[in-house]
Design brief:
Layout lengths: L2 H8 L11 E3 L9 H4 L16 H4 L3 H11 L5 H11 L4 E4 L8 H12 L5 E6 L2 H4 L11 E6 L14 E5 L27 E5 L2
Parallel strand pairs: 1-2, 2-3, 3-4, 4-5, 5-6
Length: about 200
């Protein structure tokens, strides 16, 4: 498949300034769990960053996210995504700088994309525990790490999955705030040896 053909199917990839590679942003309004948490004070999704700022300031962002969401249904989406990711010649990819997994079927499609891009390390942060609970850990591709997110600020990390992330008000492990908001050389989010990554509340 040619890159131009792939882009027609998947729409564009997103490029967060913080990250060492590309991402694939979906509309946060369509998060199954996050959209509910966004209405509850004290949760990590309250006042969601992906529902404000540049995500709504620039008119093209939200329509692009909905195009990507619709693209997941395309029968050639898996192949097209792998073509796009491999064409970027990057070592790291983040799924969903905005938005989240939509279903088990969606997650299994992502597994296929990861297998078709074996030279890339993939990372998915998610709050959709109901989908992960239907997937055996050993079914996850070796080049993909899925981190289940804690739901409350300063709350505990979920225990049912080997890798997690939390949001804390002090002593965060993520160094980005001290590095002009960028990952720079840190790759903890993609590292299977790092069981939990804690992000500072912002």
């Amino acid at each position: 498949m040619k890159i131009k053909e792939a882009k027609v199917i998947t729409h564009s990839l997103s490029k967060p300034n913080k990250m060492p590679g590309f991402s694939y942003g979906l509309p946060a309004w369509e998060c199954k769990t996050g959209s509910k948490l966004a209405k509850i004070p004290g949760t990590v999704c309250f006042s969601c960053y992906a529902m404000k700022g540049s995500y709504v300031m620039y008119k093209g962002v939200k329509p692009a996210q909905y195009k990507r969401l619709d693209a997941i249904k395309h029968p050639l989406w898996v192949r097209a995504m792998a073509t796009q990711i491999n064409s970027k010649k990057v070592k790291y990819f983040r799924w969903h700088d905005a938005g989240d997994i939509q279903s088990v079927k969606h997650l299994l499609k992502i597994f296929k994309v990861c297998k078709l891009s074996p030279d890339v390390k993939h990372w998915i942060p998610t709050k959709e525990s109901q989908f992960l609970k239907q997937i055996p850990v050993d079914r996850v591709p070796k080049n993909l790490i899925i981190r289940i997110s804690g739901t409350k600020i300063d709350g505990p990390a979920p225990k049912f999955w080997p890798w997690s992330s939390t949001v804390v008000t002090k002593s965060a492990s993520c160094p980005a705030p001290k590095q002009s908001g960028k990952c720079l050389n840190c790759r903890a989010c993609w590292d299977h040896k790092v069981k939990n990554v804690s992000y500072g509340k912002h």
